[in-house]
Amino acid sequence: MVVYFVIPCYYDDDVLPSTGPVFLSKLHTLIDQSVIDEDSRVIFVNDGSTDRTWEQIEHLHEDDPHCIGINLSQNVGEQDATLAGLFYANVYADCCITMDSDLQDDINMVDQMIHLFAQGNEVVFGVRKSRKKDVLFEKVTSKLFYIVMRIAEPRSIPNHSSFRLMSKRTIEWLREFSEISFFLPVLVASFNLPYSIVYYDRLPRAAGLSGYNFKKRLKLGTNAFLSHIALRQGHPRKKAASNVKIQQILD
After folding, report:
1. 7 near 43, Cβ under 8 Å?
2. What percent of the chain has pLDDT over 70?
3. Rounded average pLDDT over 48-64
4. Cα torsion for 236, 87, 42, 82, to the nearest 10°?
């Protein structure tokens, strides 16, 4: 089984020196245990960062050929950056696992995700057990966000964000939506493919601060809601930039 990790990165030069080796260490452990194939890889996608994020990815690639780097020509947002990595990986992988670069998602849960995929699940959603450690602002905005998303798509899964495993077929289905504005967690849930859920405790951010302030959360929620309402009505909303341009690939 060939598994690719797809990690979107945006201004993560303070994070990658500590989290990059963790992703690669986990990959090698799974390979050594014969859980996944030697051809499995970790892809870091630089989403137009102008700091030293790409330089950090280059260092990781130089140290370990199992690390692939994709450098986008401009910032396109987490959703499109993730898609760029998924579409590249899907040529080679049986399934892909998407995660945030800061490792707040519990990387040890990927073992269970891969096991569930081997049992026939096309998608495995990583879902937070609770939000006890969140500040009040995060608790309130997150609760409102998922209420709105359930209105837009009743099959959406509360407390699920970017941590998920997707089969090759799931990613091929995503290609049909590559010209519209969307929110991946809700769109994938709407496919109604065989799926399972793993529950995990959210971990402290490895370094730096979250880039999701109130303005960005509001914009994300509004776009996600309007996009999926439009999808249900059969009138997808066009993206401002329909093509994600890749500037450089390290493979």
Report:
1. yes
2. 73
3. 97
4. -20
Which amino acid, one-letter code, is at 32? D
Q: Global pTM?
A: 0.86
Q: Give the CA distances from residue 48 to residues 68, 152, 211, in Å, rounded to whole numbers and listed in that order.
A: 16, 30, 15
Average pLDDT value for the chain: 85
Q: What is the pLDDT of residue 69?
A: 97
- Which domains does the chain carry? 3-250 (3.90.550.10)
Q: Between 95 and 188, where is the model more confident? A: 95
- Two tokens, residue 201: 């405790």
Of 99-108, 154-163, 166-175, the least confident: 154-163
- Going by their DSSP bridges, the two strands 95-98 and 67-72 should be labelled as unpaired
Spell 50-74 as b/e; 16+ CB within 10 A means b.
eebbbebbbbbbeebebbbbbbbee
Write the secondary structure of the chain as one string of H (helix), E (strand) and C (coil).
Answer: CCEEEEEEECCCCCCHHHHHHHHHHHHHHHHHCCCCCCCCEEEEEECCCCCCHHHHHHHHHHHCCCEEEEEECCCCCHHHHHHHHHHHHCCCCCEEEECCCCCCCCHHHHHHHHHHHHCCCCEEEEEECCCCCCCHHHHHHHHHHHHHHHHHCCCCCCCEEEEEEEEHHHHHHHHHHCCECCCHHHHHHHCCCCEEEEEECCCCCCCCCCCCCHHHHHHHHHHHHHHHHHHHCCCCCECCCCCCCEEEEEC
Residue 84: exposure state from Cβ atoms within 10 A (0-12, 13-18, ≥19):
buried
Provide the β-strand partners of residue 197. 125
Query: What is the per-residue pLDDT for 158?
Result: 81
Euclidean distance between CA atoms 188 and 166, whole angstroms: 9
